[in-house]
Amino acid sequence: MMMPDLLVNFFFFGSFLPVDSLLSTQGIMVMLLGAYAIAMWMFLTSAPKVHTIMVSDLTAAKDFYEGLLDLPVAEVPLHYYYNYEQSLGTPGVDPIYLSNYASPKLKPRTEFNSTDGLWYQLKKNTQIHIVTGANFGHNNRHRHVCFDHACLETILLRVQARRLKYKIRRNKPLNFLVKDFEERVIELAEAND
């Protein structure tokens, strides 16, 4: 009869498990913190990497990224929905900067939304977020400025694969020109740190 031996061994080894401390308040809190840490790790490892590109004209940028490069439109990542900057404890925008007294030439903006702009899927787990903010370049070139070299290299590879007219002006920091279908010159530049 092997069954009684198995039960004896189970109870013998079970006596070494701290069941009473696992079910205590402290044990439950430790288990909850462990589960929370695993959930955060899973969330952060599955969140897409986001590169931001500042452009001088959002409409021309939409024509370029959707029409010319045929990048698929991406959904806004979850951490942008929940105001990622505020969740890190950084203060919001001070209302005094939004008043008419801050600068009479600037039109005040009443709301800030981190999901503004355009979102495209660049690679499997990489997205680009296109926002306004760059100035027009020399001869009214449409400027696209990015801080990440690898992002611009990926865009350059896509330009080359589509056989678009382009000219590399500099490799470090990366700077190249592309002509779109409307003969607009788009300058893509890596910003210097």
TrEMBL record:
Domain of life: Bacteria
TM regions (residue ranges): 28-44
InterPro entries for the chain: Glyas_Bleomycin-R_OHBP_Dase
Swiss-Prot/TrEMBL keywords: Membrane, Transmembrane, Transmembrane helix
Protein name: Glyoxalase-like domain protein
